[in-house]
Amino acid sequence: MHIPTCESCELEILSFAEALENSGSRGDYDAEKWLYVPDYYADYRYILGTRGENPLICIGINPSTAAPDDLDNTLKSVARIAEHNGYDSWIMFNVYAQRATNPDDMDKCLNEKLHRENMKAFEYILKNVGEGISPAVWAAWGTIIEKRGYLRDCVLDMVELGQRYGAHWVSAGKKSKKGHPHHPLYLRKDESTAAFDIEGYLEVIK
């Protein structure tokens, strides 16, 4: 089980550009199928997903232990729901890039560099959907958004980037009493996505 080895500010964090450039060179997974950045196990992860023209971009809070060909139950659910809703691929992205099996172990304070590089990763995802396709961004962070005050600000930056690239937001499953979108785990495999009012949601969680 992964526990962060330290606060992320103590790590040497690879920029997204450098991590992307080196991704797939290790040869221990099919790089034509998988997008994995960085492509080795580290205390942070920018992107894990499959390659395609029309991905369902799922947004959790922070990464756990999953890797190509070694998905956890959450990502298995993401893959099933993406397929059921007609997407040719899926990408798991996160509001915050620090790996932590237990979200209580996330950084107490925002690591500005990690967030900045994570937003570069998000922009890369949005830019690289198929031509003429509005990126489908699945809000799926559950109530864990309440764990850290900085997480809302991270979401605000993601919403701004999404607007720049014409993204539309969706959710799946029942929202919480406070309006938080449902986490992918425990959703039915035939769960349908539906439009998610991200602007209204941001007003709720001020």
Plain-language structure description:
The mean pLDDT is 96. Helix 3 runs parallel beside helix 4. The chain has five helices and seven strands, in the order H-E-E-E-H-E-H-E-H-E-E-H. Helix content is 28%, strand content 16%. It has a seven-stranded mixed β-sheet, sandwiched between helices. With 206 residues, the chain is α/β, with parallel strands linked by helices.
Please describe the topology of this protein.
Blueprint: H1 16-22, E1 34-37, E2 47-50, E3 55-60, H2 73-84, E4 89-94, H3 112-127, E5 136-139, H4 150-164, E6 168-172, E7 193-195, H5 198-204
Parallel strand pairs: 3-4, 3-5, 5-6
Antiparallel strand pairs: 1-2, 2-4, 6-7
Helix pairs in contact: 3-4
Strand order of the largest sheet: 1-2-4-3-5-6-7
Shape: globular
User: Helix/strand/pairing class, anyone?
Assistant: alpha/beta
**Order of helix and strand elements from N to C terminus:** HEEEHEHEHEEH
Q: Give helix % range.
A: 25-40%
State the end-to-end distance: 33 Å
Rounded to the nearest angstrom, the radius of gyration is 16 Å
How many helical elements? 5
Strand content: 15-25%
Provide the residue-averaged pLDDT. 96
Main sheet summary: 7 strands, mixed
In short:
This protein has 206 residues and is an alpha/beta fold. Helices cover 28% and strands 16% of the residues.
Structure keywords:
5 helices, 206 residues, 16% strand, alpha/beta, single chain
